[in-house]
Write a structure and sequence with these properties.
The structure is a homodimer of 261-residue chains.
Chain A: E1 12-17, H1 28-36, E2 39-43, H2 44-47, E3 57-61, H3 66-78, E4 82-87, H4 96-106, H5 109-113, E5 116-119, H6 124-132, E6 133-134, E7 140-144, H7 152-164, E8 168-172, H8 182-193, E9 199-204, E10 212-217, E11 230-234, E12 240-243, E13 249-252
Parallel strand pairs in A: 1-4, 1-5, 2-3, 2-4, 6-13, 7-8
Antiparallel strand pairs in A: 8-11, 9-10, 9-11, 12-13
Helix pairs in contact in A: 3-4, 7-8
Chain lengths: 261, 261
């Protein structure tokens, strides 16, 4: 969105993707938006990543109050504040960008006149892929397993379609304490639909101190090892491991398709 | 991949995503890799984005010689050089990461012992989404329309599956001078499979001086406006435009699914 729209006073709303964790993945535009802001809004683990400074008022909030958070941000920006709403990864991928625009769509007319700038970031799937090698060298799907806001039926339909299309599949929000079953149900379905030898990666907390990478194949890998911080990647029929000296492996989905058939 | 593997001398190979164009989207890790490198390899429009400096030897190349470029990089790194191979956007998404690992997979054993670090970047789909609003608030697919390395049949199969799964669809490499037909064929197919009122965005050169955004619906938008620099986004059944004062629009795929039915 343009940053030239000043129709609503001096207020401005940045929606900022902070990347998956480390500072090395925070884009300069995100850093600049956080420096320009005078109000910081987001889920507390994300606001905690932004250094304290004079002139930046902080409004950390709990999880699962995205629309309240969005309306709060829109109100502050309409009152002339420069507001940064932060998400982990990219704010557009299952992040706060959609929540803010949903709130703006049905809220006060002034909210739709606001200067809103979405600042893209490195999404979790890109960081995980980089860590693993090149699993996204070909077409892929990104699916959230959370059924908080969508019926499980649509998730099943999408997993089926993704398998039918032989996409590489990236699963976000695969499990939480409140939703421990989805990842088991998803693996049960994918095991019916895809070859058991399909490579799978469980990439937890990539780039952070508690990073943990587990590689295996679809038939044998344990979905019980997946938690909320895990990005799950399930290969296409072309995805394979490349063995390396010392026992390490790279994960590759080649750019060509069907070359070996 | 870890940066601690020194089994192959002092050489190192970075595979770096430069983002979609402007410096504001180049992550600090990418900047650091470019500063550490003594050899720069890539398609010339991408190497041109890296400032000249003493100690950095440049090897710009033509398009469509990815494997030659990859082998050159692997050889230099094996000889002890610190090599940066650059891609636009994210190097893992239809970029050089897969080409380098393909070359390493079948090449000399030393190549698989190399310290290779993939540095993630802001992919074109994320930058386009941020510019447009929040079109990726829900599940999505990323498909390259290039049939240089895969049969058109698999592209058709994936477009069908993406439509059946009601994914938001991002199309990379939608057209080139050598491949002017694919985008017309893809739109013909998508118009059969999806509602004609589905929102579509043609996001060309986002973040660059020659940026051009065209919004419309699937039935009426002209695929003739799509070129190689365009990221095409086709909505799901939930994707919609939010009208704004002054005639601008945001594009939104809400986080919920089926709420209005």
């Amino acid at each position: 969105m343009t940053s030239t729209d000043k129709s609503s006073g001096q207020g401005k709303l940045f929606i900022v993707g902070l990347g998956p964790g480390p500072d090395k993945w925070v884009a300069p535009e995100a850093r600049e938006a956080l420096e320009e802001a005078d109000a910081l809004i987001g889920y507390k683990p994300y606001t905690d990543r932004v250094p304290e400074r004079a002139g930046l008022e902080r409004f950390p909030s709990d999880n699962r109050v995205e629309l309240d958070r969005a309306r709060h941000a829109l109100r502050l920006a309409c009152a002339g504040r420069k507001v940064a709403v932060v998400s982990g990864g990219d704010a557009g991928v299952f992040g706060m960008a959609a929540a803010v625009l949903e709130a703006a769509e049905t809220g006060e007319a002034d909210w739709r006149a606001l200067d809103i700038q979405v600042v893209p970031g490195v999404s979790a799937v890109l960081a995980a892929a980089a860590r693993l090698g090149a699993p996204l060298g070909h077409d892929f799907c990104v699916i959230s397993l959370s059924d908080n806001l969508k019926p499980w039926d649509i998730i099943v339909r999408r997993l089926r379609s993704a398998a039918e299309g032989d996409f590489v599949i990236a699963l976000y929000n695969p499990a939480s304490k409140a939703r421990p079953r989805q990842i088991f149900d998803a693996f049960e379905l994918l095991r019916e639909l895809k070859d058991g030898a399909t490579p799978v990666a469980l990439a937890r907390a990539v780039g952070r101190a508690d990073e943990r990478i587990i590689l295996g194949d679809l038939a044998l890998i344990d979905p019980g090892l997946v938690d909320m911080a895990t990005l799950v990647l399930v290969g296409s029929s072309e995805t394979r491991f490349i063995p390396r000296p010392g026992g390490e492996k790279w994960l590759l989905t080649p750019r060509s398709y069907g070359a070996g058939r």
